[in-house]
Amino acid sequence: MISLLLFGASEGGLFDFDATLPLMAAQVVLLTYILNALFFKPVGKVVEEREDYVLTSRAEAKKKLAEVEKLETDLKNQLKGARQAAQKVIAEAEDDSDKLYKEALSLANSEANASREKVRREIDSQRESALNQLKSDADKLGDLIVQKLLAAK
Amino acid sequence: MSLLRLFISLKMGTSPFVLPFAALEVGQHLYWQLGKLRIHGQVFMTSWILIGALLTLVVVGTKKMERDPKGVQNLLEFLWDYIRDLARTQIGEKVYRDWMPFIGTLFLFIFVSNWGGALIPWKLIELPSGELGAPTADINTTVALALLVSLSYFYAGLSNKGLRYFEYYVHPTPIMLPFKIVEDFTKPLSLSFRLFGNILADELVVAVLVFLVPLVLPVPVMFLGLFTSAIQALIFATLAAYYIGEAVEEHH
Asked: Rounded distance, CA A144 to CA A141, Å?
């Protein structure tokens, strides 16, 4: 009785198979085609295009990043070279100015020495000549005194 | 005891018992006559409404698609991605594209049917016989879906490997032959009955609880029902994809 009601009752029941089954199957197949045309194809196209876009953009970005890194190292090297050059220039300039200073100093020293020497020599020669003068004057005076004394006698 | 009788009378559908909860009309159908054929009208009515809702969503979401998705397009792309992952993991990289629309349609149709049956207050619409509910709570629908799955995995196997498809029956040893043949019958049987049983049982449990305790108590069961409904849609689609994948898999 119950099994009759469950499977193949003429009116209703849970397991009442009829034309609903093939029609539902046909409906689902139809729905598959409709959804394929309206949903799966267009959405798939958009999603896959975006995936391609993201992939190519990422590859491009990676390339650009590598380029940027290369440029950065290049610039860093250049900067390092420039710094070294600048330091060399500064050191050279310091050396130069040092040398010039020393030269000027030695020149001034030697000039001062020379003029001092000259002055001393001048003084010496003047003293010499003064002494000579004095000596000759004294001699003359002595002679004069002797002559006077002799004349007085 | 009374609960047991309740369930028995529910299952028998055309039970002669006259019980006070006539609102539960399980196993009764609204028959439409198409020539000599009889179909269950309530199943088609709900399925048309739900398919209409699904198609409306799809049409609205794909009307103006952009590379930066907005609104419904996001939802559709999420669904598409979900279905692609499902089909790809089960069927394999090589042929999943051919079967993705079928698997996706199964998933979406079952999901929409299950949730539509649970969420829309169909009981407000009075029918002369039977009542509106999830189309998947009717055995005709689930068997139709399961038979479609059977046909598709045969077709997938034969179209991909020709007659070599039947190597599958003696793989890895000929001892497997009877089991593999039995499997061809148990696959649609288990697919259809699992879906049918889960959805019908969910509807019955909610209906019985609402009848017994009309307040608060049915709510967690309803949520559980929504959860089962979603899981059942996923299980059906996953198994269908797995069967197709099994049929197209190359044995070495």
From this structure: 5
